[in-house]
């Protein structure tokens, strides 16, 4: 298995632009998680899905952030409009039931 | 508030020495996970501890779980430079399927 796949790996954008991050979970996993990691705040859970349904989005910082999971093999995290404080590494992870989570390589987002 | 607290947060040790990282958690789950993160990389699952008294070992690392004390330890034996990384312990948010609560991480630096 190729593991969790994220794209792009790096994204540099200007403030105010829309950013879309993509994730393909491991086949057969039924839970998907989006995290954000910064030096200041550490690793934060933004939202997670179970069987494609959002379960907890309390970590989504603002309405500028939205996430979707249209099917079991694809999820997006969108930021619109982006701001410099959104600069971080965004990880997607997947798991099966209550098992360990497998993390993707991350997307390093820089908003100038 | 559900918490996972690690200590120390920073650990500098010499090669060949032993040390223990502690993880206290306040969730009601009996599952505890340890992850490793190398600088600029993603998180890699190290250990999954599923019950009281569980002990897992991989090379120079050994993890244990005491669910009554809500304490997990990660013991490092005869440290080598390759173990330099940040180690996270995590526990499941009680009542929320699969939602992991992460500690702040312990940044380990092993010096010759």
Architecture overview:
The complex is a heterodimer of chains A (112) and B (112). Chain A has strands spanning 5-7, 10-13, 19-24, 31-38, 42-50, 53-56, 65-71, 74-79, 88-95, 102-103, 107-111. With 112 residues, chain A is an all-beta fold. In chain A, the strands form two sheets. In chain A, strands 2, 4, 5, 6, 9, 10 and 11 form a seven-stranded mixed sheet that branches. In chain A, strands 1-3-8-7 form a four-stranded antiparallel sheet, with no helix packed on it. The mean pLDDT of chain A is 94. Chain B is an all-beta fold and 112 residues long. Chain B has no helices and eleven strands. Classes of the chains: A mainly beta (112), B mainly beta (112). At the A-B interface, strand 5, strand 9 and strand 10 of A face strand 5 of B.
Whole-number average pLDDT of chain B? 90
Extended strand count of chain A: 11
Give me the secondary-structure category of chain A. mainly beta
Poorly predicted residue ranges of chain A: none
Compute the number of helices of chain B.
Answer: 0
Helix content of chain A: under 10%
User: How many angstroms does the end-to-end distance of chain B come to?
Assistant: 40 Å
Pick out the low-confidence regions of chain B: none
Task: Note the beta-strand portion of chain A.
Answer: over 45%
Q: Which class best fits the helix and strand makeup of chain B? A: mainly beta
The coarse silhouette of chain A is globular
User: Quick one: how many beta strands of chain B?
Assistant: 11
Please name the two chains that share the biggest interface, counting residues whose Cβ lies under 8 Å from a Cβ on the partner chain: A-B, 22 and 19 residues
Largest sheet of chain B: 6 strands, mixed
Radius of gyration of chain A, whole Å: 13 Å
Major sheet characteristics of chain A: 7 strands, mixed
Layout of secondary structure:
The complex is a heterodimer of chains A (about 110) and B (about 110).
Chain A lengths: L4 E3 L2 E4 L5 E6 L6 E8 L3 E9 L2 E4 L8 E7 L2 E6 L8 E8 L6 E2 L3 E5 L1
Chain B lengths: L3 E4 L2 E5 L4 E7 L6 E6 L5 E7 L5 E4 L2 E6 L4 E6 L8 E8 L7 E3 L3 E6 L1
């Amino acid at each position: 298995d190729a593991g969790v796949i994220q794209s792009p790996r790096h994204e540099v954008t200007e403030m105010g632009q829309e950013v879309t991050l993509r994730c393909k979970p491991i086949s057969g996993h039924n839970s998907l998680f989006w995290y954000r990691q910064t030096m200041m705040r550490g690793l934060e859970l933004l939202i997670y899905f179970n069987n494609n349904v959002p379960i907890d989005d309390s970590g989504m910082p603002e309405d500028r952030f939205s996430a979707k999971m249209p099917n079991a093999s694809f999820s997006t995290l969108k930021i619109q409009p982006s701001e410099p404080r959104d600069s971080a590494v965004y990880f997607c992870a997947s798991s099966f039931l209550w098992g360990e989570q497998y993390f993707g390589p991350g997307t390093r987002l820089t908003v100038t | 508030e559900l918490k996972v607290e690690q200590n120390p947060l920073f650990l500098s040790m010499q090669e060949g020495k032993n040390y223990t990282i502690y993880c206290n958690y306040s969730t009601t789950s009996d599952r505890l996970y340890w992850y490793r993160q190398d600088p600029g990389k993603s998180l890699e699952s190290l250990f999954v501890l599923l019950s009281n008294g569980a002990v897992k070992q991989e090379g120079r690392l050994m993890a244990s779980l005491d669910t009554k004390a809500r304490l997990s330890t990660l013991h490092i034996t005869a440290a080598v430079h390759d173990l330099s990384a940040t180690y996270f312990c995590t526990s499941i948010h009680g009542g929320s399927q699969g939602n992991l609560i992460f500690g702040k991480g312990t940044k380990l630096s092993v010096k010759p």
